Amino acid sequence: MEFWKDPLKAAADWLAGILVGWGLASQVSQVIIAFLGVLILISLLMVLDIFLVWVERKTVARFQDRLGPNRLGPFGLIQPFADIIKLLIKEDTTPGGADKWVYNLAPVLSMMSVLMIWAIIPLAPTVVGVDLNVGILYLIAAGAIGTLSIIMAGWSSNNKFAMIGAFREVAILVSFEIPMLTILLIPTVLSGTMGINGIIESQSLWYVFLSPLGALIFLIAAIAELGRAPFDMGEAESELVAGYNIEYSGMKFGMFYAGELLHAFTFGGFWAIFFFGGYRFFGLEKVHPFLAVAVLIFKAMLGYWVIMWVKYTLMRIRIDHMLALNWKFLTPLAFILLMATALTNAILKNSSILIYWAGMFIVNIIIAFVALEIARRVSTAQRARLEGRKGAAAA
Amino acid sequence: MNNEWLFVAFFIVIGALVPIAAISVAWLVSPKKSNPIKQSTYECGIETVGESWVQFKAQYYIFALVFLVFDVETVFLFPWAVKIGQLGLFAVVEGIIFIGILIAGLVYTWRKGMLEWS
């Protein structure tokens, strides 16, 4: 019965028993078990990553009214494995003028930054790599390594397209990090902790209902951080051919590609964790840890699907518009939302829970409405001015 | 497990080893038939003119400065956000004044015309 309740802990205990039986110190055996646990989690992530390729290709096919991969295996499920074999036996060319060390390190860092993030993701109440009390800061720090890998790849390739791609990408990543950070403060204010598990535990009502505007800004900023359309200036195919990873081939390109997909899935997961209750689903997570993992994966898939939906529906935005959207709209909005949330939290803290929830929700709706109204007025005025100028030029 | 940062270290080490392993396997099985044409910089078939590592106008230089300020200040806000429940209304107002100063900085940058990508 014990085994059924928490199979992972039972397995770890069983393994610890064997290792101690071999004459190892208890401390050493714990370290070995931790190492094995991390190895298994990362291997499972890589397998998941392979299937994400299939999910992505199947979904984009549906959006574009195609069938997608459907030849190899049922529903084309074996297709990604064929892709991997192809990537493995591709010749790996290095441009002559490249900075070899930086060039080879960039794809490794790109993948590593994503895998590092999974250290803090609680898959279930008991299945968590490590519940850091500075979880959110760790998430941001690990994400910054991804940015670093992009500029390393762009700079070291000694290619002008790659260089321009990296410049643009970093400008976007640097800009959209501000609203992202600010919005991450909102779950912190609401739950009173920076630990990811604590944030999930305190979501008796999903934060998307307490802060719908925050959830929306987080999604926009996350898509920009991922460098996916409509914010994919760094790899704008029609202008830069492939952007920062233009000179990469074979498995090195595969690492960038896999890293990007897993990153998107991870941010879908974080959207679920911060605003949709993570592994919580009406007490289902208490029944069995594996059920909680299934709930989280399901929610992360939904978040990933929303990110794909946005990617394949919207067209690319010009870079000056994109940065204006961030600095002149999202950043002030995020800061105002944070101030309003903190104030509402302080004022309504001692009143009944229903009034607290309703107050938070209403404050969000009011701010969203006012912000959109201001944006609408400003853009209408701008358009009128531009059209007036055009009319004058025509006359 | 007493030290939770050991887990993080494992994640970093294995997270780096997995892509290194993948790339190494590809290096072992892939053909190696390099020639000068293959090694040349890709520019849609046109021969490259000049170096890529030239002085480049970094349009986002000002953005990066503003980002730096905001990033550091936001990190200061995290402890405030964690303890907001215990601190009462006064600390909340203080935090709001702090954010207000930040927004004033943003407005100043905006009025100076530094938020235009040109």
Topology:
The complex is a heterodimer of chains A (395) and B (118).
Chain A (H helix, E strand, L loop, with lengths): L1 H4 L1 H15 L4 H38 L15 H10 L11 H18 L17 H22 L3 H32 L4 H6 L5 H4 L1 H15 L10 H4 L9 H26 L8 H4 L1 H25 L5 H30 L4 H42 L1
Helix pairs in contact in A: 2-3, 3-4, 3-12, 3-14, 4-12, 5-6, 5-12, 6-7, 7-10, 7-15, 10-12, 12-14, 15-16
Chain B lengths: L3 H26 L6 H4 L21 H22 L1 H28 L7
Helix pairs in contact in B: 3-4
Account of the protein in words:
The complex is a heterodimer of chains A (395) and B (118). Chain A is mainly alpha-helical and 395 residues long. Chain A folds into two domains: 85 residues, no CATH class; 239 residues, no CATH class. In chain A, 75% of the residues lie in helices and 0% in strands. Chain A has 16 helices and no strands. In chain A, 47% of the residues are buried. With 118 residues, chain B is an all-alpha fold. Helix content of chain B is 68%, strand content 0%. Chain B has four helices and no strands. In chain B, helix 3 packs antiparallel against helix 4. The longest helix of chain B is centred in the last third of the chain and has 28 residues. Chain B is flat, with a radius of gyration of 25 Å. The termini of chain B are far apart. The model of chain B has no long low-confidence stretch (mean pLDDT 79). Chains A and B meet through helix 3, helix 5, helix 6, helix 7 and helix 12 of A and helix 1, helix 2, helix 3 and helix 4 of B.
